[in-house]
Amino acid sequence: MTSPRAVLTLTSPEATCALASQLATRLSPGDVLLLSGGIGAGKTHFARCLIHALQDPPEDVPSPTFTLVQVYDTAAGELWHADLYRLSDPDQCEELGLADAFETAICLVEWPDRLEDLAPADALSLSFDAGAAEDSRALTLDWSDPRWDAIVTELTA
């Protein structure tokens, strides 16, 4: 059985931000988003827009490339934004406390391939690629947990 999949074209950085804001309102602690794609594909832009949508007022959201994890208090609960690009071993993910955060916080994980088998099976995977037009992105969403069915349907309507 194959997992459900949706493919979207995001025509601009503003469209990417709008989708992130829509998704933000549907998230709660225990939700994990796995953001993949090459450097410059739009992962951090998406994450920043999603975090801003949950903050009142929005605060500075730096890329966690060097800090590895940034934690935010939001109206929806604690949110962890992790950038695993610099990690070389999944054990380092355990040391960061990500396994616990997957259960208690909203988690956005860039470079989720670094998690290997630590990636939660019920996560929503978002894969960003350059689109055909300048500044556009092709976004593929994959999931196995039925919880995401209605959410993705609403986002793609």
Explain what you see.
By secondary structure, the protein is of the alpha/beta class. It has one domain: Rossmann fold, CATH 3.40.50.300. It is 31% helix and 27% strand. The chain contains 5 helices and 7 strands. The protein has helices at 13-24, 43-54, 90-96, 98-104, 147-156; strands at residues 5-10, 32-36, 69-74, 77-83, 106-110, 124-130, 137-142. Strands 1-7-6-2-5-4-3 form a 7-stranded mixed sheet, with helices on both faces. A hairpin with a 6-residue loop joins strand 6 (124-130) and strand 7. The longest helix has 12 residues, at 13-24. The two termini are 24 Å apart. The mean pLDDT is 90. This is tRNA threonylcarbamoyladenosine biosynthesis protein TsaE. InterPro entries: P-loop_NTPase, T6A_TsaE. Belongs to the TsaE family. Its main location: cytoplasm.
Strand order of the largest sheet: 1-7-6-2-5-4-3
CATH names the topology as Rossmann fold
Q: How many strand segments?
A: 7
User: Roughly what is the average pLDDT, rounded to an integer?
Assistant: 90
Q: Estimate nothing, just give the exact number of structural domains.
A: 1
Sketch the topology as an H/E string, one letter per element: EHEHEEHHEEEH
Shape: globular
User: For this structure, what is the CATH class?
Assistant: Alpha Beta
CATH superfamily: P-loop containing nucleotide triphosphate hydrolases
Structural class: alpha/beta
Main β-sheet description: 7 strands, mixed
Radius of gyration: 15 Å
Q: Strand content of the residues, in percent?
A: 25-35%
* CATH architecture tag: 3-Layer(aba) Sandwich
Spatial separation of the terminal alpha carbons? 24 Å
Number of helices: 5
Low-pLDDT stretches: none
Assign a percent range to the helix content: 25-40%
